[in-house]
Amino acid sequence: MSGAVSTSTEDVGFAKLSRLQIAWRAAEMIPDGSFVNLGIGIPTLAANVMPEGKEIVLHSENGILGVGPGPAEADRDRDLINASKDYVTLQPGGSFFVHSDAFAMIRGGHLDLALLGAFQVAGNGDLANWTTGDRRFPPGVGGAMDLAAGAKAIWVLTDHVTKKGEPKIVEKCSLPLTAPGVVKRIFTDLAVIDVTGNGLVVREMVPGLTLERLQEMTEPSLALADDWKELSVA
Amino acid sequence: MSGAVSTSTEDVGFAKLSRLQIAWRAAEMIPDGSFVNLGIGIPTLAANVMPEGKEIVLHSENGILGVGPGPAEADRDRDLINASKDYVTLQPGGSFFVHSDAFAMIRGGHLDLALLGAFQVAGNGDLANWTTGDRRFPPGVGGAMDLAAGAKAIWVLTDHVTKKGEPKIVEKCSLPLTAPGVVKRIFTDLAVIDVTGNGLVVREMVPGLTLERLQEMTEPSLALADDWKELSVA
Amino acid sequence: MPIDKIVPDVAAAVAGVKDGDTIMISGFGFAGVPNDLIHGVLDAGARDLTIISNNAGTGTEGLAALIGSGRVTRIICSYPRSKGSDLFDARYAAGEIDLELVPQGTLSERMRAAGAGVAGFYTPTGVGTDLADGKEVRRFDGRDYVLELPLRADIALVQAYRADRWGNLTYRKAARNFGPVMAMAADLTVVQVREVVPLGEMDPETIVTPSIFVDRVVHIDNDREWDI
Amino acid sequence: MPIDKIVPDVAAAVAGVKDGDTIMISGFGFAGVPNDLIHGVLDAGARDLTIISNNAGTGTEGLAALIGSGRVTRIICSYPRSKGSDLFDARYAAGEIDLELVPQGTLSERMRAAGAGVAGFYTPTGVGTDLADGKEVRRFDGRDYVLELPLRADIALVQAYRADRWGNLTYRKAARNFGPVMAMAADLTVVQVREVVPLGEMDPETIVTPSIFVDRVVHIDNDREWDI
Predict the structure, then answer these.
(1) Chains B, A in contact: 3+ Cβ pairs under 8 A?
(2) pLDDT of B10 above 90
(3) Which architecture, in CATH terms, is C6-102+152-219?
(4) How do B120-122 and B127-128 pair as beta strands?
(5) Chain D hits for B65, Cβ within 8 Å
(6) CA distance D89 to chain B (A)
(7) Which of B40, B210, C187, D118 has CA atoms 20 to 30 A from the CA of A157?
(8) CATH number among 1.10.3720.10, 3.40.1010.10, 3.40.1080.10, 3.30.160.20, domain A19-190
(9) How far apart are CA A82 and CA A88, in angstroms?
(10) What does the DSSP assignment read for A112-146?
(11) How many A/D residue pairs have CB atoms within 8 Å?
(12) What pLDDT does A133 receive?
């Protein structure tokens, strides 16, 4: 995996991950053989950086199992798009099915994992990712609540702070919830953090970042895992 | 339609229909273009005597639309049987589907008509056709309750009286119900009777039978339709 | 008489659509949207419509055009706002269209329930969120579920790939999406297809929507790219 | 590592079946019954089983043999008694097997509910009958419905026609019946198929049970007629 590392204008001594790098970090951790849904936003990028040597089956809630990477422009098919409405391909072994079956897979607990975006995640795993509460714009929920309620595990992929620099990992979500207490792991542009019964535990941080500095950008208390590692982008 | 007409040993002056003739009479009345389920017993026979010149699509609750007549013995396929577990064929335009979809068609009100057998039918349309209440034998309900609750119309095909000569069309079912108030029309070996808001109305009787004699074999009061006809087997 | 659900044109396909109707429209994003049928409804002039569809239309044609026409007073969907949903956004901002937002899995399951004769079902989706406000919540085996009710329509407009005169349907790739459940859930199911084949030519193992769910089929061989 | 759900033999396919398990068995009449897998369970020696199947077996082999062995203490089905169901009938008459009789549409819908994460649903089937005794009845839009709960199993034994190493399945004709809903409703779904094909050879449009629902596949090319 190669890619440009963006540098922060405010912070020195560490570099934030790009969106694609966040997706890559999460993709690397997906267990071999998993059936996984990729939500809108950063998670969708993971389809293009799936780990080599593993066979992971990607699910799209519009009725696809075995989603492959985006096609060359000449190979685009208007009948073959993912839940983000991006053109995709189908892997050998893939299948198409009706929407209600796509969500039977989700709600019925058949998906091993869903990677979702977030506006806010709380220390207890509460997820808010469907509406900013701005009443000038119509809200859109899509499959977010089904995925949050139904997948065996939920990982969130997000920037660590908002564009205004406010924490997205919060004590309590101020935005309307997608589902309570569902998030198990958070991948940000700065760290990989587990949501545990004993609070948030940092597993990885980007090189040069300190727990103290990360804590300043995070509302709930962070603990550092005994075996924490640098978040290194290969 | 040709077929032997059975003669009663007790009654003179009229002849009972055979089981196949009952099925034929009902089949003749099925509106062109209908989607119809044929229940176990006499109704199943109707598949072999469907009216010519009409296109009627037969549904079987084990996952078939477009059931055709039974095959020649050499053409039997162990994967192609109907709900009565008889070998059948598939008509051009037929389809196979999962059991839950077969019953979505039934329960969801998509079937125009179901032809069912009966142990008892009451004057108000109550149907009892799933258990004789004999506790020595395990009961079996199959799809009877779904069909009775879900098809747009229920016609019953049955002998008029039991082997012991007792009425099967009764004031009130003594046997456990399959569904209350669902039967719209009754085809017996003696008559065709409509279940109406004003009671049972005889539309057809076999030649030589009188309303008085039919009433003796029927518990609820029978009225004769103004335009009643002889039940003639072509 | 042979069953023949093939109708000659779009006008015949949508004949009978009337003011106040609830209309389901298949498609997810730009895949599987029955644009010709939608424009048929627009041409038929019906008003005060309720639309049930996953999205609320983008660009200037198809569902966006119908909404832009002011004939849609209410929409039931999971994800109305997308890049290009300007015509919907404007109506919404002006308070000219009611929005019932439904989680996508609940949306498709409510359609299936309507089609399958199920009067209600309990789903874990939405529990503890604003979208469960006012709904019955009930605990089964230690987990909370929301009661959801079936969703029916007067007419479903569906895009499929291939049909025969009985109305059997196959779809193409991800354009299948809501088509099969909408076809089950409407009083009148109208389908536009790219190919019509003789009866018996479709493999009975591969039919996705069996004939019983379909009322009218219109063949649209035009392959134009809509602004959606 | 490539996903490979193909196991070498019946013993490996049913490995882990244990006393007290609830087992779904596909088939309707003699079509679609996974007889080899059933005999695998019999050979594995598990006892005190609950069987969920439409019928209760006929003849001397397959489900009838399992029931005849005395290892089944309970059966949930719609139609146990058929011509040739003597082994079941005898156990039933002797009070050695519990029977939960479920209307056939409710049986398949309860399986689908389990597979689809639905905690309960309201059906019109059975209202006003003995089979609704003790169940919640609720009125929607002027009609009564019975609340039915999902039906899960520890293991589903399914007969299908063709599979690949991911576990995608197609079925053959009316042998499809309960297979697809049972595959959704069990913790462990085990399938016997007549053909295994390389990944990518199955048409993605025609797969009936997508891979996600399947755990193990065993290839049985023996074509013998069972006494069932």
Answers:
(1) no
(2) no
(3) 3-Layer(aba) Sandwich (3.40)
(4) antiparallel
(5) none
(6) 7
(7) D118
(8) 3.40.1080.10
(9) 6
(10) SEEEE--SEEETT--EE-S----TTS----TTHHH
(11) 72
(12) 83
